[in-house]
Each structure stands twice: as C-alpha cells, then as structure tokens.
Amino acid sequence: MLQVVCKKDYEEASRAAADLIAAQILLKPDCKIGLATGSTPVGAYAELVRKYEAGELDFSKVTTANLDEYKGLPGTHDQSYRYFMDSNLFDHVNIDKSRTFVPNGVEEDAVKACKDYDELLDREIGAFDIQLLGIGGDGHIGFNEPADAFCVNTQCIKLEEQTIRDNARLFFNGNLDEVPKEAYTMGIGFIMRSRKILIMATGPKKRDIVEKAFCGPVTPWVPASILQLHPDVVLLGDEAAISEKVRALGK
Ligand code: F6R
User: Fold this and answer.
1) Residues forming beta bridges with residue 116, ordered by sequence position
2) How far is CA 75 from CA 70, 81, 86, 183, in A?
3) pLDDT digit string (tens) for 101-114?
4) Ligand 1 mean position to 143 CA, how many Å?
5) pTM score, whole prediction
6) How many domains does the chain have?
7) What range defines the domain where residue 169 resides?
8) Is residue 138 within 6 Å of ligand 1 at its C-beta?
9) Residue with CA closest to ligand 1 atom 3
C-alpha cells in the first residue's frame, strides 16, 4: 500500500520523517534501519538528534546499514558517506557505532566489496524494519541508476553524469573532477526486502521524477518505480515535490 504524505515545506517534511523513524524505534528498540545520505534527510537527522537530546529516543540497541558509499573514499574523507552519517547523526546520539554499517569504500576489488556487503546485510540485518530513501533526479534509489534490469545485489556502479553534477553542486565544493565516478550501492533486492519503506522527496526539482516513479510504468529505467510493487511505502514530501496527481494516489 502507498501512503502519500504531503507537508507544507522541507522543515515539516523532515519533522514528519523523524517522527516515523522515532516511532519505529519506540515500537522496537532493537530495530534495523536502512539509512540514506544526500541533502534530503539532513533535516530529519537533525530532528532525530533533537529528540535524542530531549530524552525522547534511545538508539543504544538500534542497528543501521547505509545504502551506498563512494568507491575510493575512506570513512575519514569529509565527503564520504560514512563521514556524513557520523557528522549528521551517529556522533550525536547513543548509537553503538559498531552496529552502523556502510559499504567499504576503500576496498578496491569491487567484486569482493559487493559480496562482503551482501554477506554482512544477510548476517547482521536480514531485512530492515524501515528503510529511508531519497530519490535521484533520474529516479535512482541508493545509487541504482537507470538500467535495462533492476539490480538485485550490491553492485559497483558508474555514476550517471546527472548524478555526478548533482553531487558536485551539493558537495565537493562544486568541483566536478573531485566527485568519484563510481560507488558501491546496496541492490534493489535488499531495499525491497524492507518491511516498510519511507521515501522522501522535497523541492521542485523532484516533482517530475516523483510523478514518473509513482504514476508511470514500473521500469528499471526509473528505478524508484519498483516501489509501486512494495506492500508498505510512505512517500513523504513537500508541496513543491508532490504534485496533485501523486497526492491523489495516496488518498
Ligand atoms: C544517498 C542515496 C541517493 C540519494 C539521491 C537524492 O545515500 O542513496 O539515492 O537519496 O541521490 O539525493 P538528494 O537528497 O541530495 O537529492
């Protein structure tokens, strides 16, 4: 079932996303959560930190695994996704960092890196209780870019030009050359195994792709469209990103 939640703006959407994740932790303190990076969830992570500081949340038994990591970047690099997670969330709450997993960006052997992450996900997670996702301008989830088939397992992906440009604008001080051209990403198979999926989309640039993903055909050329087949998806966004047509789906 798809539930569409459309909030006024980014701040309200962030608070609503944090509320949902917090509810999951209250329901099951030792829950397993799939996490995303990028600009979209920053506000939700800040709100989770606020809840923790207010004594409303306990992360001590939570396990997390992230969708992706740039190939070639160590976790100490300030543009790595490990660094992003530490600085936006993990360093500010009482999570056991040994229970937070991110693909190993410094493993040069791509086949090994992907196999290792899949084994780790099977062993430590099994299936997420909730998976937080953003959506790329080309419909990617994780870094699963448009392709002629949905990629099931963790893979090493060549990032699309649009993704590299989007990332350079937001990160890497706008320097295209510095953005790694490859990344490790959790496959769509593991994402779909999650019991619940929370996909966030905010801002006018996401409006068209959200409509394509949720109102168009299910196709690997729009990877997020596969979520139409998942039994429990919350699409949470703001008025700029969620068109009337998409809102009508969740009513
Ligand atoms: C990041 C990730 C990506 C982003 C997507 C949207 O871990 O998995 O799929 O969610 O690129 O990025 P933003 O939020 O920066 O628009």
Assistant:
1) none
2) 10, 7, 9, 13
3) 999 999 999 999 99
4) 8
5) 0.96
6) 1
7) 2-249
8) no
9) 142
